[in-house]
Amino acid sequence: MTLDSWDGICFSTAIDLAGRIRRREVSAVEVMTAHLLQIDRYNPRINAIITLDADRAMAGAAAADRALTRGEAIGPLHGLPVAHKDLQDTAGMRTTYGSPIYRDYLPDADSLLVERMKQAGAVAIGKTNTPEFGAGSQTFNPVFGATLNPYEPSKTVGGSSGGAAAALACGMVPLADGSDMGGSLRNPASFCNVVGFRPSPGRVPSGPDGLGWFTLSVDGPMARTVADAALLLSVLAGPDPRSPIALEEPGASFGIPLGKDLRGVRIAWAPGLGLPFEPGVRAVVDRQRATFEGLGAIVEEAEPDFAGADEAFRAGRAWSFEVALAEEWERHREQLKDTIQWNIAEGRRLTGPALARAELARTQLYHRVRAFFERFDFLVLPTVQVLPFDVAIPYPTSIAGVAMTTYIDWMKSCYYISAVGNPAISVPAGFSPDGLPVGLQIVGRHRDDLGVLQLAHAFEQAAGWSHRRPPLAG
Q: 224 to each of 146, 165, 387, how far by Cα in Å?
């Protein structure tokens, strides 16, 4: 395999690559070989993939080729290499959750998400790095260390799906999964110049373990293009009896061309939700207003009232941490990082009336946002309030002179959206003068996941984006 052909494979879109494998223009083994070479070349420098099983991956690719030779029915991801976030259980493959408590844990079964990707023909190569138990939008942990930003290795990739975002940016995989409570799909996508889609709660069912009725945290797709993210969503979405909140719409609803005439669509251009933003972030995003207007959209400065979002999100997050990590708190508290201990303690201090007030605030928020979206089709704002920051800093302690008192304060531009449950995507919007990526966030109406993907795709095409490789992988 020549360097040119290897490079061409690794930076192909997932849709193109899947088609070439189906048509047998390239074998799954050749595709896997190219990606393993890419991992070998770049992963030691950024630490995105923290568990790699090359033998298992090559065996899976060979099996994919044999299935094609026999004329078997194949899925939409047939033969594509994928990496799973290290919060997803993978049968027989180490799953640590970024915690020393689970340093050598081998699950007996796949999570529902991993199961669906496998059934669609994807071939797992390994796991991507995440902060401990996915807590925080900076990807580092005591088991594997930090993942470095391929656009500037002194900076963070964000998190918690930071390993996935960095692996995509460097061409190590064409698709990856992530999860998002307070921005963990969108934040690293912004910091790494890729696409991260937070679907509506229930769109991608999870389980069977955990908090089946919990809607703050969702799983979703990451990719280098919006169409590729929609391809992965078509596999991940759809009903499943193991999830009590799973939406009935089949995943195939998202496996369609995303092109749509968007003339006359009404877009609310958010001035800032009352939050501080670094000037460099706003400058990049605000330049893209003209791109939406060029699509024929009617763009007006407006935003919903997000009063109550803080109370609703913080209470829900703290409660979920206390429930999910109760055993680890009791048996291994000294091994949990300080911010997780704080979040669990916050959960233990919650009372029944406090949780009730938070749910009431969230319901009122939902109805205000619902009324807002009777006037507008979409809301557009920056994904993250800051540019990628020093990887040695756990989290920003101030933004534009405003103090951030906890490790989640700086994520409000994402977690306000999580609190209300609307679908949202981060798409690349440009770069700061120093070459740091900036993402733009598109938020849709309640459960209008397809509409968000269609507008994001139109923006991507109108802006003329083809994936800008990081200097590291140039």
A: 22, 9, 19
Beta-bridged to residue 83, according to DSSP, are 126, 176
CATH of domain 3-473: 3.90.1300.10
SS (H, E, C) 355-394: HHHHHHHHHHHHHHHHHHCCCCCEEEEECCCCCCCECCCC
Has residue 473 got a pLDDT over 90?
no
Please give the structure tokens belonging to residue 273: 């939700």
Q: Is 57:125 a contact under the CB 8 Å cutoff?
A: yes
Nearest residue to 191 (alpha-carbon basis) of 224, 215, 213, 158: 158
Q: List, for residues 121-145, the tens digit of each pLDDT value.
A: 999 999 999 999 999 999 999 999 9
Contact 420, 365 (CB under 8 A): yes
Task: Give dist(CA 263, CA 367) in Å, integer.
Answer: 27
Output DSSP code: residue 93.
B
Phi, psi of 321 (to 5 degrees): -65, -45
Gap between the Cα atoms of 170 and 184, Å rounded: 19
Q: β-strand 298-301 against 266-269: which pairing, if any?
A: parallel
Angle between helices 412-420 and 309-324 (to 10 degrees): 80
Taking residue 59's Cβ as centre, other Cβ atoms within 10 Å add up to 14
* CA geometry: angle 348, 350, 352, nearest 5 deg: 125
126 sits in the region (left: phi over 0; alpha: psi -120 to 50; else beta) called left
* Distance, CA of 292 to CA of 290 (rounded, Å): 5
Closest CA to 44 of 144, 189, 158: 144
Q: Which tokens go with 146? A: 């930090």
The region that residue 222 occupies, defined by phi over 0 for left and psi between -120 and 50 for alpha, beta otherwise, is beta
349-385: per-residue pLDDT in tens? 999 999 999 999 999 999 999 999 999 999 999 999 9
Going by C-alpha positions, the residue among 428, 434, 390, 427 that lies closest to residue 149 is 390
Residues recognised as catalytic = 85, 160, 184
- Cβ atoms of 142 and 339 closer than 8 Å: no
Give me 242's structure tokens: 């193991």
Q: Are 419 and 436 in contact (CB under 8 A)?
A: no
Spans of all domains in the chain: 3-473
The helix or strand, by DSSP H or E, that contains position 148, with its residue range, turns out to be strand 148-149
Q: What is the pLDDT of residues 295-336, one digit of tens each?
A: 999 999 999 999 999 999 999 999 999 999 999 999 999 999
Helix (H, G, I), strand (E, B) or coil at 282: helix
